[in-house]
Amino acid sequence: MNKTILRKYARLLVDTGLALRQGETLVISAGQEGLELARIVTEYAYRRGAARVELLFGDEAMQRLHYRYQTRDALTSVPAWQIARYDEMADRQVCYLALLGEDPNAFCDVDAALLNDVARARHVALKRYYDATTDNIIRWCLCAVPTRPWARAVFPDLSPAQAERKLWTYILQCMRLDAPDPAAAWHAHSERLRNRANYLNERRLTALHLRSGLGTDLTVALPQGYRFDGGAERGRNGVAFHPNMPTEEIFTSPHRLGTQGVAVASMPLSHNGTLVRDFRIEFRDGKICSFDAREGADCLAQLIETDEGSHYLGEVALVGADSPIRKQNILYYNTLFDENAACHLAIGQSYPTVAGCESMSEAQRLEIGLNRSHTHVDFMIGTDDMYADGIDADGNRIPILRDGRFVAEAE
After folding, report:
1. pLDDT score recorded for residue 154
2. For residue 255, which of 275, 283, 280, 231 has the smallest C-alpha distance?
3. In this structure, are residues 207 and 303 in contact, taking their beta carbons and an 8 Å threshold?
């Protein structure tokens, strides 16, 4: 990708994604293919007044060697110096930018249970850092840089070079970098998502009812004081930022004990190098009581058994069937994109989307219905015939989605 486009991308990430301020520290996570963009972001961030920019380099080939040669105990033990680094990132309230471009098949031959154990151990060890991102103490932004292994998975019928170019084209569209003024386009889009969220917040709903022709029939209870979010969020210091770029969702955290019914996946789930296809999950009093999958059932089982909280939901998100990512009609094998193609649910950790919960302890959050887990994995249930109603305290039903489209915008 030419440097003119990369500079445009860097400006969008620094100014709109992170809203970097004078004197702040920026930490960039990137692999080999993201280094060129990382360098351009670094220069632009310094020009915008960053006090320090640090790089966290990751390499999947090296990680595979770790899995091949390290013992399980070594893999699931996080060194104290790594914990100290991430604790300091939380304490200093850095800005964090992740340039994602993972190969979906990088770890397909690694034991899925081991991958799950490593992820859980890391989440436990780096709890202060993960809590700081979940609670927006750290302003963070996830975005993507195409890589050839990733592009080959998305476009297997093209040559590696052609696949990479096509994936770049699709991602630039998702990022609105083809607009005359990408920042203005993002702010307008964010406002549209905020209006959708506010519409549902004003209705003071007690539950959502979701149905699809695939068989989803799910009632999702909402905690008292719930808040739908979407588009830009606000850091604890009041600065607006965009944690996910792209994004097409409005979302909230359900009451952990209030989901009833069946959710049927509308897209495959790519998790730890395994594709889980054609699966359904049944909930009773919030807890997963049964599930099955045509392919990848073992992977799904290991995900659900991560901890007690992974038996419950941490997110419900609404995405219109007219989402530009959905219209691309591809599977990205990357949750950042796939979750913005369809309504979805997430197993595991909740977001702090209840009024006043920012000052609550973990026990208090659990008491009001927010879930706690060492994982958070989205799976898609949205379809072109998706039907969603809100239910208020009097039992009135408020139409939200019909045939996958937001009703309020069609009126």
Report:
1. 96
2. 283
3. no
Which has the closest alpha carbon to 259: 215, 315, 341?
315
Largest interatomic CA distance in the chain = 60
Residue pair 30/141 in contact by the 8 Å Cβ criterion: no
Q: What are 397-405's contacts with CB under 8 Å, separation 24+?
A: 397/209, 398/203, 398/205, 400/200, 400/208, 400/318, 401/318, 401/320, 401/343, 403/321, 404/320, 404/321, 404/322, 405/320, 405/321, 405/322
- Residue type at position 60: E
* Cα distance between residue 338 and residue 317, in whole Å: 13
Structure tokens at 328: 């691309």
Mean pLDDT by 10 residues, the chain (411 residues): 92 98 97 96 98 96 95 96 97 96 91 91 95 94 96 96 96 95 96 96 97 98 96 92 97 97 96 92 98 95 95 98 93 94 97 92 95 96 97 96 87 49
Among positive and negative, which fits the CA dihedral 383, 392, 348, 322? positive
**3-state SS track over 302-367:** HHHCCCHHHHCEEEEEECCCCCHHHHHCCCCCCHHHHCCCCCEEEEECCCCCECCHHHCCHHHHHH
Cα–Cα distances in angstroms (integers) from residue 84 to residues 10, 29, 118, in the given order: 29, 17, 18
Integer CA distances (angstroms), 331 to 155, 243, 320, 380, in order = 9, 22, 17, 11
Is the link from the previous residue into 352 a cis peptide, with omega within 30 of 0? Answer: no
Q: What's the token pair of residue 126?
A: 């780096």
Query: Against a cut of 0.70, is the pTM above it?
Result: yes
- CA-nearest of 224, 246, 229 to 195 is 229
Q: State CA 224 to chain mean position distance.
A: 24
Closest by CA position to 247, among listed 321, 169, 177, 186: 186
Q: How far apart are CA 382 and CA 340, in angstroms?
A: 10
Count of residues for the chain?
411
